[in-house]
Amino acid sequence: MTVLRTPTAQPGEALIELHHVARRFTKRTDRSRSLQELFIRFFRKRAVDPDEFWPLRDVSLIVRPGDCVGVIGPNGSGKSTLLKLITGILPPTRGDIIVRGRVSSLLELGAGFHPDLTGRENIYLNGSIYGLDRAAMDRRLDEIIAYAGLGDFIDTPVKHYSSGMFVRLGFAVAIHTDPDLLLVDEVLAVGDAAFQHRCMESIYRLRREGKTLLLVSHDLRTVESLCSRAVWIQDGLIAAEGAPGDVIMAYNRYVAAQEEAEAAQRRPPVESTRVGVGARHGSRSIEITHVELCDANGTPSSSFVTGETLIVRLYYRRHRPVEPPVFGMAIHHENGFHLFGPNTLFAGVDTELDADEGSIDYVIPRLTLLEGQYAVSVAVHNRADTETYDYHDRAYPLRVVYSPARAGYGMVDLQGSWQPPVPAGRAAVRQAGKGPAAKLPSESRAHESSPHPAHHQP
Q1: Which one is predicted more confidently, 185 or 95?
Q2: pLDDT over 50 (residue 455)
Q3: Is 81 exposed, middle or buried (0-12, 13-18, 19+ CB in 10 A)?
Q4: For 251-318, what is the HEC assignment?
Q5: Taking Cα atoms as reference points, which of 273, 282, 292 lies closest to residue 318?
Q6: Could you tell me which of 105, 99, 101 has the C-alpha nearest to residue 17?
Q7: How far apart are CA 171 and CA 175, in angstroms?
Q8: Is the predicted pLDDT of residue 89 greater than 70, yes or no?
Q9: pLDDT (average), residues 273-280
Q10: Residue 41: CB partners within 8 Å, gap ≥ 6?
């Protein structure tokens, strides 16, 4: 195990080098309540090994000058432990750590502050921790106080500060010490909106100045927009590293798969006795036995990305002879809003059943839904809509995960396009594109928003 820290970095040298770093903690489940118990336990050989926990198992990472690295992952995956190892708060259990240059960090609420000292006194205390003498802090003092916006509270002991005041003062000190490397944990989420905007402006300024940043955050949009590289840590190991968009996409798919597996265990079967979400009713002359949401390869999944192919596959079983039925589906947002509901009657599809069992697909070549939780309803009924054979109301969850190539905000990508600005005075007539003209609202079929018409709207 080697830990090396130098105040400066030579040209071409990395600021952070981690080689096969691991950290172990021992969970203490037994506590001595008296000196006698402590004495007996000291001389008694333990029958079992201590319960060990490894937040980091084998992490190797290189951060070079000018890099902006975002670290993502679930709670308990080892992200904060990684920053504490880099700052020297914790030593590694094994592996090599090399840190070069002046490091400023904002890791925990109140870290580096003495509760009985005033805000002003803690500024000098933090400056000494960062390696700056009193004269250097005197030159920065007014800027730090103004940035933190604490006013008269700067001469109040920090034990009386709110969590937001702690963060404002800590961040103000950290960015005004001219760091070569800034380490930031999730604590910025504590500040109010105005301070968060100020923090982000400061971080972007540090980036423009070529400073190096290592950021731990659950805000994936911030990681994508701010960072040049992302690292996903899972169970103490680096699960993925690379371009932020690619890493975030892999992480979102993993989270969606985990949530779907947990939801599948808790999800009750579709029942005919229920009303509302998950309800089922119908004569079962034709039964929808199960439903799959599949990708372009036909692989079942519960999470999709905007722009991907979605196939809604309905498996059916016919219990008695019927005329060609109508199959339908509908998509609802989690707030209950009904988005769309096509069926085979509207599409003019021949649904003559050649066998008692089979399947039918509704294919969406390019999913236009944006990030969010949705639910799918399915139905089958006769052509006159006088008999419902089987109806599953919002029984199948659909998650659309965050896409780095998102087109906007809301629920649906309208697939429109912006045209370049036209100077005033030019002809007002513009051509929006070469495609066919859009239909007027009166030309659209209003009843196409249901999996089947009339009384069975999801």
Answers
A1: 95
A2: no
A3: buried
A4: HHHHHHHHHHHHHHHHCCCCECCCCCCCEEECCCCEEEEEEEEECCCCCECCEEECCCCEEEEEEEEE
A5: 282
A6: 99
A7: 6
A8: yes
A9: 60
A10: 30, 32
Please give the distance of CA 428 from its chain centroid, rounded to a whole number: 44
Which phi and psi angles does 370 have, rounded to 5°? -95, 175
The candidate with the shortest Cα–Cα distance to 199, out of 209, 210, 189, is 189
Contact 393, 376 (CB under 8 A): no
Residue with tokens 């096969």: 20
CB atoms within 10 A of CB 84: 19
How does pLDDT run across 338-369, given as a tens digit for each residue? 999 999 999 999 999 999 999 999 999 999 99
Token look-up 């972007």 returns: 204
Convert the pLDDT of each residue in 4-49 to its tens digit.
988 888 888 899 999 999 999 887 666 656 666 666 666 565 544 5
The torsion angles phi and psi of 392, rounded to 5 degrees, stand at: -115, 115
Q: Residues 226, 203: contact at Cβ < 8 Å? A: yes
Q: What is the length of the chain? A: 458
Number of H helices, E strands in the chain: 9, 19
Using only C-alpha atoms, the chain has a radius of gyration, in whole angstroms, of 30
pTM of the model: 0.68
Residue type, 56: L
Quick one: 280-415 is in which CATH superfamily? Answer: abc- transporter (atp binding component) like domain (2.70.50.60)
User: Angle CA(382)–CA(385)–CA(390) in degrees, nearest 5?
Assistant: 60
For β-strands 326-333 and 372-381, DSSP reports them as: antiparallel
- Rounded Cα distance between 393 and 289, Å, is 14
**Residue 99 pLDDT > 90:** yes
Q: Measured on CA atoms in the order 268, 272, 277, 278, is the torsion positive or negative?
A: positive
2-28+37-253 has CATH 3.40.50.300 classification: yes
List of residues 6+ apart from 168 with CB closer than 8 A: 147, 148, 149, 150, 191, 195
Q: Which two tokens stand for residue 160?
A: 């009386």
> 117-142, pLDDT tens digit by residue?
999 998 998 888 877 888 988 998 98
Domain boundaries, the chain: 2-28+37-253, 280-415
Q: For residues 391 and 394, give the distance between their C-alpha atoms in angstroms, rounded to a whole number.
A: 10
CA-to-CA distance for 150 and 118, rounded, in angstroms? 11
Q: How far apart are CA 454 and CA 432, in angstroms?
A: 36
